[in-house]
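Class, study these two lines:
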Amino acid sequence: MSTSNITSTHPAAFLLVGIPGLEHLHIWISIPFCFAYTLALLGNCTLLFIIQTDAALHEPMYLFLAMLAVIDLVLSCTTLPKMLAIFWFRDQEISFYACLVQMFFLHSFSIMESAVLLAMAFDRYVAICKPLHYTTVLTGPLITKIGMAAVARAVTLMTPLPFLLRRFHYCRGPVIAHCYCEHMAVVRLACGDTRFNNIYGIAVAMFIVVLDLLFVILSYIFILRAVLQLASQEARYKAFGTCVSHIGAILSTYTPVVISSVMHRVARRAAPHVHILLAIFYLLFPPMVNPIIYGVKTKQIRDHVLSLFQRKDV
C-alpha cells in the first residue's frame, strides 16, 4: 500500500447525486425548487428592508422576525444554489471541506431557527401575560443577548461535527446519495466505528426539538389561560390574533420535521427519493412561507408592502 493511501483519510471531493432514482426528472424538479428559492429570497429580503426602514417596527417582535428572515436566507443560500447547479449543469462535485462547511451552516442555522421561534413565543407570552412589563422586560440588550445565545448554542453543538468527520477513512466511495451534505449522508460513507456520530446527531436533534417545542407549548398554555380570562370576546380574538403568525411559522418549521421523522420510522422501505424530497421540503418550505404568513397576518407589514406598490403606481 502506498504512503499516499495511508495518509489520505478523506477524498478530495464528494459527488452529490441529487435525487437518486429521479435523475431523469431533475430539470422538471428544479422548476418548483427555483420558484420556491426566488420567493424565499424576495420575501425575506423585503421583510428585512421593511423592518430596517420603518422605525415603528423596531420592536422586539419585529427584531425577532428579522432574525428569522436572516436565518431563512442563509438556509436557502447554503443549499439551493448547489442543488440547482446539480439539476441544471450536473455540477455534482463538492470539495470535502466545502461539504463540511455546508453541513455546518445547514445544521447550525436550523438550530438557530428553532431558538428564534422559541424567543418569539417568549415575546408573545410577555406581551399577553405581562403587558405592563413588556417594554421593561424585552429591552434591546436582552434581545441582543437572546440572539447571541441562539448563535452560541448552535455553534457549540455543531462545531464537533466537522472534526468528528475529518477523523474517518471514507472507503465506501465519494458518492453522496443526496442533494446536499447532510450529516448522516456523509457518515454512511465512512469506515470504522460511527456509533458516536449516530448517537450525537440523534441526541442533538432530540434535545433541540423536544426542549424548544416543550417551552413553546408551555408559553402557549400560559397565553391561552391569560386570553380566556379576558372579559370580552373581542379582546380575546385581538390578543390571540397577535399569535397567529407565530403559530403559522412554528407549524411551517416543525411539521416537515415531524413528517420526515415519522416517515423514517413508518416507511423505512420507501424509495430513497421519498426521504430526500421530504428533507428538501423541510429546507424550502419555511423560508418560502414565513414571509407570506407574516406579510398577510401582520397589519404593519401588510400596510407597508401595500404602500410600496401604491407609490409605484403613482
Residues 180 and 270 are 20 Å apart (CA to CA).
